[in-house]
Every structure is written in C-alpha cells, then in structure tokens.
Amino acid sequence: MSDHKTRTKLVHGGTRRSQYGEVSEAIFLTQGFVYDTAEAAEARFLKAGEDEFIYARYGNPTVRMFEERIAGLEGAEDAFATASGMAAVSGALMSMLKAGDHVVSGRALFGSCLYVLEEVLTRFGVEVTFVDGTDLAAWKGAIRPDTTAVFLESISNPVLEVIDIAAVARLAHAVGAKVLVDNVFATPVFSRVMEQGADVVIYSATKHMDGQGRVLGGVILGDHEFIRKTVEPYLKHTGGAMSPFTAWILLKGLETMDLRCRAQAGSAQILAEALSGHKLLKRVIYPGLPSHPQHVVAQSQMEGGGTVLAIDIEGGQDAAFRFLNALKIFTISNNLGDAKSIVTHPATTTHQRLSDDQKVLLGISPGVVRISVGLEDSGDLVADIMAALEAV
C-alpha cells in the first residue's frame, strides 16, 4: 500500500482474509494454534513463517493486521502491538537498555512515562538525564559519547511543548544513540516522525486510534531488526501483548482516524482562536497559534496543530475547578483523542505525583486545564467554554 494515500492505507492496509472472504476483518479470538504434526510444531517453533502463529502472546492474525496497517501508515518496517500505551513505552525502553546505559530525555512527560524513566530504569542501573526539551543547547550538553538512547514526547503532555525532532535526532545519531519518540499528541495523521529522524515511534492506541473510549492498546514501530530481535523477545516473554479483540476494535478505529483527527484539529484551532486574549486566561497553549513558543517548529514538522490545547485560568485551582464543574458538554476525564470532548486538571490528576517544584518547572500551574477536543459542533464547544468561564 506504499503508493496509496493515508485514508486508503487506513481502510485497507494489512488486510488478510480467511477462506470465507469476509469484508470486515475477522477476529481470531484464540490463545493458541493447531499443528498438523509434531514435526510441523517443531518447525514452527524453530522459525515461524509470515502467516504462521504459535501463541497469542507471540502474535495473532488480527493483531498482525493492526500492526501492518499502522506500520504502513507510519512508514515503518515493522510494528509490535501492546496491551496499553505504557506497555509500549516501557517495552521499548526496557527491551533495549541494560545497567550502565545512559538515556537523555525531555523533562516534560506524561506522569507514567516519567515514572518509568525516573523510578524503574534507574532502579536497574540505567542513568537518566532530563533536559528542557525545547532547548537544543541542553540536549547537546547532555548527550554523551556513551549515550544509548534519547526519549521525548514530540508534543509534551500537558503543556504542549513542541520539540525539534530533526535537530535532536542529528545530535543523538552523531554518537550512535537511538531516538525514541512518543508521538501521541501529534498523531500519525499530522506527523511523520520517522522522516524527521526518529528510530522508534511509540503510540498509545487508546487515544486517537480507538478514538471512542473503548479499549487500551499501544504500538511500537521501528525497523524490522529492532522490532523482531529486540522488542518481540522481551514482550512475548513478559506478557505485554495486545488482545485480538482490542486489535479488531483498533482496526475499525483506524478506518476513520484521519477524518476524526482532522475534524477535531479544526475545532481545536477554532476554540484556541476564540479563547485567545480572554480576560480570565493567563495563557492559551496550542501549537497552531502564532503565540505558541514553538509555533514555527510545529509548522515545520506537523500538518496541523493537533487535537489538544491547554488553558491557564486566573485564580488557580479553585477557579479551574469552578470552570470544570460548570461545563455542560465537555466531560471531566483523563483520556484524550476521544470523539467526546474531555477536560483534565493535570496538577491534581495525571501529574499529581510530581512535587510542586517539578510542576512549576514544567509549567503545570494550578490553573492549567488540558482540553481534548472531540467531534461535537465547534460552535457548541466554544459556547460551553465561554459560559463556564463566566461562571468562574
């Protein structure tokens, strides 16, 4: 499907049909697979063919369809699907690192990503250095000749810092380090991070790929050698595999992802522009606004501003809570990329475990609210936000 456009790939990529010729992809809801003979079982365990499977923890036809479809969209050689986005993050890092390795990471991260880097990896002897992801001089100063990997969120959660991936990749590759990018906020619809120098791309499929709040899932994308020789052995033995039913849900989600993301990003742009300059807001943070500190970088490496924005409300947490509680359409939750518009107060939820000093450093003030824009009418969303701000 390499010659086809995005929407075509998202509908047809990776499709494999059974002897029944089904239109919709089949769910192979099975744990194991049958062999005609003992010799056939032995041969498959020695080396499974392209359409041969051993156990659902190792691979499954429905899961493989999902992996091939998203790999074709991303322009990656291969992919491994996981049980959740965090299984993908931890699996990608843990599978390739060992005691004594050095990792440089952007400091603005989702709380669970920060936990894996700050608590888990260091527990096993991996040295981790955190930097201001938007400061190229900081990356240059932190990356050493013995650095094994760099990790970053292309757009950080929750204050939407945009990192110059190509520039960071050049610095990392100069010392032979791999570049791992969590690209959830930018989405594969708007961003091609492998073209910008990423070696490994990680997604929480829970977000835009499902897009309707149904299942957990994740995926790691990279070259064939990394996925099959590094990631697969680790994940198939530690049990982070995706369920076939989840893979089927995600295949259905991928069919409409391009349409959904573009509609959501269009509404996010309208909402960001409508809120800019509001008297009750200290900041409106959205990569699609010229006021965003990395707006130029965002324009150079993304087709759109994404589906998420953040606002910083005057009056801190009390004002933020009054705002959240006054909303009628927006749902208070901690997911994003959903068909339903969702609001989150990061300081007391997703980033609650951070110290006050860390929150200040990352710009997560008590008044910050993260807004994931859904598929509702943009005019209704603007009216709901404005009415809630009046309640503040």
Salient structural properties:
single chain; 392 residues; alpha/beta; Aspartate Aminotransferase, domain 2; Aspartate Aminotransferase, domain 1; 7-stranded mixed beta sheet
Task: Write a brief caption for the model.
By secondary structure, the chain is an alpha/beta fold.
Describe this structure in words.
The chain is α/β, with parallel strands linked by helices and 392 residues long. It has two domains: 248 residues, Aspartate Aminotransferase, domain 2 (3-Layer(aba) Sandwich), CATH 3.40.640.10; 134 residues, Aspartate Aminotransferase, domain 1, CATH 3.90.1150. It contains 15 helices and twelve strands. The protein has a seven-stranded mixed β-sheet, with helices on both faces. Helix 1 packs antiparallel against helix 3, helix 1 packs antiparallel against helix 11 and helix 13 packs across helix 15. It is globular, with a radius of gyration of 21 Å. The termini are far apart. The mean pLDDT is 96.
Question: How many helical stretches?
Answer: 15
- In spatial order, strands of the major sheet run 1-7-6-5-4-2-3
User: Which class of the largest domain in CATH terms?
Assistant: Alpha Beta
Strand content: 5-15%
Write the layout of secondary structure elements.
Blueprint (H helix, E strand, L loop, with lengths): L5 H7 L25 H9 L14 H14 L3 E5 L2 H12 L5 E5 L4 H13 L3 E5 L4 H7 L4 E7 L11 H9 L4 E5 L4 H4 L9 E5 L1 H5 L7 E5 L1 H15 L5 H32 L5 E5 L9 H7 L6 E6 L2 H11 L4 E2 L9 E3 L11 H7 L5 E5 L5 H14 L1
Parallel strand pairs: 2-3, 2-4, 4-5, 5-6, 10-11
Antiparallel strand pairs: 1-7, 6-7, 8-9, 9-12, 11-12
Helix pairs in contact: 1-3, 1-11, 3-11, 4-5, 4-10, 11-15, 13-15
